[in-house]
């Protein structure tokens, strides 16, 4: 979700009386591994029961709306964006006043209990600067507070800020790879795009005034044609806003050995986000994927 205003019940109003919704997405990505000898074949984050994920998301202040999957990833559309669970990686992407970092302690316990993974191999936490940070819930009001919490879990974390803190900037927290143990990582490439000042007539597709269902919005917007052979799980909010996850069907000839996850939540006249992930180190595959999206 990448917009900053929307009419939603219970959202605080700005000075003009318009209900405010913080569309900046908090992105938490964690890769797990095990310190024990032996194969990781039986270790899988997807072994965690659905009810446990639902309970965890209550801490984050969101809930599961729908679900789809392929042989590489379980994809959940959430009330506040998306969650993706694969063998060793969890991606939790939420907006509004959600609190993803509050779930870290119970998450790590769940992972060890149900999967056998007992170590975090890598972590990424990132977000754009908020429009109204004072409305966020601790520890998310300030990046410094978020970093302080993350440092209590990860010894080798480092924080970065890209851009000017006075205008638009991007915050990132990740592990220092030089300090961490070097393990063979899975092929993984991410393309993330944030678009602003989009055509208001096109964006009106993502309102209940124009489309009666998510499926209609997906077709009218052309999203269904963006990536061939993608299984689409979409949702149209009231009165406006749209979110979808897409996972690739196995054996896709156009993009071999690729798993796509693609969350979009759009609000009229406000920014839109796209994220796609490739499990492929081929430069040709990455180039074809990028050109298709652009």
What does it look like?
The chain is of the alpha+beta class and 294 residues long. The chain has a single domain, classed as S-adenosylmethionine decarboxylase (4-Layer Sandwich), CATH 3.60.90.10. It contains 6 helices and 13 strands. The chain has helices spanning 50-60, 104-115, 143-151, 200-203, 214-221, 283-293; strands spanning 26-33, 64-69, 73-78, 81-86, 89-94, 119-128, 157-163, 169-175, 189-195, 230-236, 242-248, 264-266, 272-278. The strands form 3 sheets. Strands 2-3-4-5-1-6-8-7 form an 8-stranded antiparallel beta sheet, with helices on one face. A 3-stranded antiparallel beta sheet has the order 10-11-12, covered by helices on one side. It is globular, with a radius of gyration of 19 Å. Mean pLDDT is 81; it is low at 1-10 and 253-269.
The top-level CATH class is Alpha Beta
Shape: globular
How big a fraction of the residues is strand?
25-35%
Total DSSP helices: 6
> Within the CATH hierarchy, at the fold level, what is the topology?
S-adenosylmethionine decarboxylase
Q: Can you give the helix content as a percent range? A: 10-25%
Give the radius of gyration.
Answer: 19 Å
Query: What composes the largest sheet?
Result: 8 strands, antiparallel
When the domains are counted, the total is: 1
- Please state how the strands of the largest beta sheet are arranged side by side: 2-3-4-5-1-6-8-7
- What is the CA-CA span between the terminal residues? 19 Å
Mean pLDDT: 81
**Count of extended strands:** 13
Low-confidence stretches: 1-10, 253-269
Supply the CATH superfamily name. Answer: S-adenosylmethionine decarboxylase
CATH architecture grouping? 4-Layer Sandwich
What structural class results from the helix and strand content? alpha+beta
